[in-house]
């Protein structure tokens, strides 16, 4: 998905070439087909090739993926997910990151009943 988001669209050959330690070409084609079946990609035909495109903007896709990760690995607990991310960084957040997180929390508090 990163490759397709970066380019806007890509064929299986382009994706295969861009992957480090790429699996076989047929495996890449199969993965693209699965992503299309799941609704993450769509395609248009360009002669004999399929050109794949994302079905939603990257920002929207990332929010949706993050919600699934939080639900799957943290039983829906946003605070547990944030704690795991901070712990993974060894608690070493830049002043800018801390300031942004504090602003997000402050905004969320003002929206809470």
Structure description:
By secondary structure, this protein is an alpha+beta fold. The chain folds into two domains: 2-54, Winged helix-like DNA-binding domain superfamily/Winged helix DNA-binding domain (Arc Repressor Mutant, subunit A, Orthogonal Bundle); 58-111. 63% of the residues lie in helices and 12% in strands. The chain has helices spanning 2-7, 12-18, 25-37, 58-74, 78-88, 95-111, and strands at residues 10-11, 41-46, 49-54. Strands 1-3-2 form a three-stranded antiparallel β-sheet. A hairpin with a 2-residue loop joins strand 2 (41-46) and strand 3 (49-54). Helix 2 packs across helix 3 (25-37). The radius of gyration is 19 Å and the shape is elongated. The termini are far apart. The model has no long low-confidence stretch (mean pLDDT 92).
């Amino acid at each position: 998905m990163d490759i397709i988001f970066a380019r806007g669209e890509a064929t299986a050959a382009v994706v295969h070439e861009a992957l480090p330690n790429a699996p076989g070409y047929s495996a890449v084609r199969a993965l693209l087909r699965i992503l299309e079946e799941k609704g993450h990609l769509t395609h248009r035909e360009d002669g004999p090739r399929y050109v794949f495109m994302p079905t939603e903007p990257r920002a929207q896709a990332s929010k949706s993926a993050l919600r699934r990760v939080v639900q799957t690995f943290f039983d829906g607990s946003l605070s547990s997910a944030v704690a795991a991310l901070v712990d993974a960084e060894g608690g070493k957040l830049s002043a800018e990151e801390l300031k942004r997180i504090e602003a997000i929390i402050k905004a969320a508090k003002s929206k809470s009943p």
